[in-house]
Each structure stands twice: as C-alpha cells, then as structure tokens.
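Final report, Chapter 2: Outcomes

The project's central promise was a pipeline that accepts a single protein chain and returns its three-dimensional structure in a standardized token representation, suitable for archiving and comparison. That pipeline is now operational. To close this chapter, we reproduce one record exactly as it appears in the project archive, with the input sequence first and the structure output second.
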Amino acid sequence: MIKQAIIPLAGLGTRLLPLTSVIPKELLPINGKPGIEYIIEECIDSGIKELIFIISKKKEMIRKFYHNDRFYKLIIKKKNDKRLITEYKKIKKYKKMIKFVYQNKPLGTGDAVLKCEKYIKDSHFLLLLPDDLIINKNCSKEMISLHKKTKSNIIASKKVKKKEVSRWGIFKLNKLYKNNFVIKGVVEKPSIKKSPSNYAVIGRYLLSKKIFKILSKISKGKNGEYHITDAIKQMIDNNENFIGHVFKGKYLDCGSLQGYINSTREVSKLWNFV
C-alpha cells in the first residue's frame, strides 16, 4: 500500500507575484479554502496516512497555518462559531498527518525529494506538485490502483495540442492502451517537429525508493538545480518500468496568475457558486 506523499512547497511562487510577496501561493484561496487543501484531500481520499511538506524558512507561514491552536481556541471560546469549530477540527486532523522538511536553498525538485529519503518507509511513495490541480476525479487514487496491478512506477499525463508541446515535458511512449502507456523517455520542452508525442508530464508521480540513490548521484541541470526528471530518465535507462497514466479529471494550472484566476473560476463552477 502507498501510505506516504511528498509535497514540495519551498518554491517562491514568482509567477504569482505580487500575490505571493507576503502569502505563500499554497495558502492562496481557491473558492474559499487554501489551494493546498485540495492536494491534501486528494491524498486522504487515496488512502495516504502521512504527508511530507517540503518548505523553506521563507515559507514558515505554511507551518504556522497548521500550528495555530492558541488562536483558534481563543476565537472559538469567544464566539463558539460552528463553522470555525469545524475548520479547527479539520486543521488539527491535517496537522497530525503532516511532517515538515526544510529545503532552504532553491536547488530544484530533485534536491527537495532527496531530503525526504530517511522518512520514506515503504517501497513506493506519491509525489504531488501543488501547482497542478486536478478536479472532478482523483488522479492519485487512479495511479495507486494502477500500481497495485502493475507494480510499476506511474506518472500522470494529459494529451496537449501539438502546437503547445514546447511548453511541457513530453513523453516518449509506446503501447498506448486505454488510458495508459509504457514510458520510454521524457523530452523537456521539445520543438513541434522533434516532439516524440503530444502526451505531457503532469505533476503526479508514484515512485520507487530506488530514485533516492540516483538523486544522490545526479549532476545539476538547468538553472543549477537537481531535476526529478533527470533521475527518472536514468531509472528508465536502467530498465525500471514506468507507465504513463492519462487521468480522467480536469487539469488546472494554479502556478501562474492567469491560471490561478481560471482555477478559482473552474472550481467555483464545480460547486455551483457562480
């Protein structure tokens, strides 16, 4: 069973400035609740028991958000507001599940994941990138179900327009069947002519612990960072099995200003609040 999920949150969220000049992007509200809560709910609904949040000292507000008991107790004592009581119970539940790990130097997702090595207990774990929101269907649950059947590493994917492939990491693939395919490689932001497919990498990964050994040895890539995709490419070269899963839900990009605005609009439609 997959019981742990890593969620990297140390990024500065520069694409969302000025909104993120004070507030971490993960705490920005989407339809009345912090964006990170949608990721937490996806994990809990998938059977995850422990969440590993990777933050930096600059993102301490995230930790404080889940450790603000004194404030809630004081307000609830004064107002006895049922809504606040419900919210506080939910936050306390989440707090028990969350372990905080620090990445104080911006050295990429690969470096962030490597810092969690000693906390991962089982053979496989989930990795969720919070900029990628998937609504309507639980992508992580679909991936865990597929892993049970195949014992493979799983990466989420969506089909994109050919004219947009240069914006994405794109899979080399074969044996496309139903919503899944065998991954043969990943090409970062290829040109339209050189793109091996139009199936893009989305920020949901179900990975073997074997990736830690590779992450500890890979070199820095673009922008002086350690990239998780470089480690995945090496695992594929080592004949580790990877399956791409085309999820059934709706994809939303919360990492850019326009994407954040659109995400709020789309989630509101889901709950009939427009």
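Archive annotation: The chain has a mean pLDDT of 92.
This record, like all others produced under the grant, will remain available to the consortium after the project formally closes.
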